[in-house]
Description:
The complex is a heterodimer. Chain A has helices at 124-133, 146-149, 174-181, 183-197, 211-221, 241-249, 269-280, 311-317, 358-361, 374-378, 385-393, 397-402, 413-417, 424-446; strands at 23-25, 31-35, 45-46, 53-54, 59-62, 71-72, 77-86, 92-100, 160-165, 201-207, 227-232, 264-268, 287-294, 301-306, 325-330, 337-339, 352-357. Chain A is an alpha/beta fold. Chain A has a domain at 374-446. In chain A, strand 7 and strand 8 form a beta hairpin. In chain A, helix 3 runs parallel beside helix 5, helix 4 (183-197) packs across helix 7 (269-280) and helix 11 (385-393) packs across helix 14. Chain A starts with 22 loop residues before the first strand and ends with a helix. In chain A, 55% of the residues are buried. Chain B has a two-stranded antiparallel sheet. By secondary structure, chain B is mostly helical. Chain B has a single domain (18-309), classed as Ammonium transporter fold. The mean pLDDT of chain B is 91. Chains A and B meet through strand 15, strand 16, helix 9, helix 10 and helix 13 of A and helix 1 of B.
Amino acid sequence: MLKTFKIGGVHPEENKLSAGAKIETVKVPSQVVIPLAHYSGKPSVAVVKRGDYVKVGQLIGQADGYVSANVHSSVSGTVKKVDVQLDASGYKRPAVFIDVDEKDEWDEGIDLSPELEKDFSFTKEEIIEKIKYAGIVGLGGATFPAHVKLLPPPDKKAEVLIINAVECEPYLTCDHQLMLEKGEEILVGTRILMKVLDVEKAVIGIENNKKDAVEHLTNLAQEYDGITVQALKVKYPQGGEKQLIDAVLNRRVPSGKIPIEVGAVVMNVATTYAIYEAVQKDKPLIERVMTVTGKNMKTPGNYWVRLGVFLSDVVEQAGGIPEGTKKIIAGGPMMGRSLMNLDIPMAKGTAGVLFMDKEEALREPDKNCIRCAQCVFVCPIGLEPFLLMNQSEREMWDEMEQNRIMDCIECGSCSFTCPSTRPLLDYIRYGKSTVGLRIRKRTSKMT
Amino acid sequence: MDKLIISPAPHVHSNNSIEKTMRQVIIALIPTMLAGFYFFGLGAVIVTAVSVISCVLFEYLIQRFLLKGPTTISDGSAVITGLLLAMNLPSNIPFWIVILGALFAIGVAKMSFGGLGNNPFNPALAGRVFLLFSFPTQMTSWPEPSPLSLQYVDAATGATPLVALKGYAGEVPSILNFLTGNIGGSLGEVSAVAIIIGLIYMLWKRTITWHIPVSILVTVAVFSGILHTANPEAYISPTYHLLSGGLLLGAVFMATDYATSPMNARGMLVYGVGIGIITVVIREFGAYPEGVSFAILIMNAFTPLINTYIKPKRFGKIMK
């Protein structure tokens, strides 16, 4: 029996249409807009100004505060302006606009050779400094700065490193393809992380719908001490940090705590590759793999895309917007955000663009709750979505807090499964943000 | 490009629907219904048809003319209420009594509380108990099984096995007859095998989980087993408890009604144990030979309390 997490979960149609498609490189257009903000944490502060000439990999945004990450130029060219830009979050946030020249001139010190660099002799501190400088954030979607995760509180010790290669979102295949093409680099990245965390054991968790990746990495991992590959039963949301730890280690992170509480650190597989590049090649995070897909796309595929390239440019090179598209999603169908248009720059957390036609995109109207309890059975946290929705509608914030609304990971399994197609997660999100705000107000008053 | 649809995640749905769920329950009821038709003949067919048609019609009329809103008869829930009500009636009951039962089930027990999902009590059982109090004679004269007979109200009647087991009248049938359904009783409760086929189908399709039926049956078996071991003369054996009367029908189809049962696994177990205990208590110590309907309705009343105090198993403990 394959391992998986113990509570709840659903099985959405996988639709991994772009599986096996070689990663192609998207040509850099004449203008890019590089976001200085990530989904989580403070935006970085621009260190370039209008008229400056920047090279590829040059620092353009300085991290501001603890939960913040550096941003580097993904192109060579002239800074046009530093302004705000609408990004995938739906907000206008600071970004650097750059007119691209054709030289593609890289910053000094970046190793562009494709050879695998296996050995490293850096100290723990040097590695963390390199990762921090390279502006690496979690590429699974939450975009939490990677170096922060690698500095656990002094009283806690990591025992196991888990590489999150689950990719449980339907449609997305970027991590899958990256494992097939850059397997060895990922393993070196894993070794680097093991050194930083001072752990003897690392487990790469991969869902069993990627058998070729499981096999490929298992073969390669024989050369690397302490790294094992764990095939996992396909179940959404296994890529959730807490679910993955439960699946791999059979340990449950307590409510409101982080993985280090149970001795685990989880790092996304694409992040691990970026860490390899940052440490071994001194290459900052200036590009990532993304999936461009949809049932009506002629050639769903995976692409290397530089940060700041507009999604419209990416899609154009990927074959254009398919006929009949009614919804465009940044990310996967379970947790991605629907976009108003494609005039949105590529950010570190953008793992995919997904096109849906009307039939796939429309929600059915909601009906009476029939109290079937399916939302309760599928909730991976063991919450009662039907109750939280009711309480959110009635603004019963204290009761929602008691019912552990803040533990919700917003995976959407409840809305996905509801036979009455009720907008459970919409209301729960509203309640969670309100309750979160109330908790912050309360704690700031106390101190 | 036309305007795009903007909505929050998730952007895909499982294609579960009320209709699909209800269809699964109806399919699961087919073996039970056919067994009733076979053993009780024409009467069973008439009672079932009248019950289903009047339940659907009453729901339509109430929604259309009293509530002046959209009708939801196409979701199939009224059909199920009609089927379940019929399964709980003797096949020789006059059709106008069936219509009254349907009116109570749909009109009072379901629609007056706000329709599907809002009813605190199982509508079909409420209808049945209403009829039991209003027409005690007709509701307790059970026809003898007589395969494919063409008789309706004039069918020959006899004592049900539970009455016989308690030693009041009649003979106790063989276990084989219990399993196939060749015994007296309401038209859907007689065939254990047919009901279990329905249970397996619903578990396979994940229409229901195992918690409620299994906890009821295990509780009845254990509790009646203790009583029977203590005094075999006075108390019925667990085998007969499990196979006779409406226990299987109740445990599989009535107690598992979504709206009136608890909404997490632990709560379901408490609810099932409660039903099991009350059933045995009524059967062994009460005035009525049968207690499943009452047990389920009583535990229906406890469902909101169970939902409030018994929470699902949460992920990860709380640390201070």
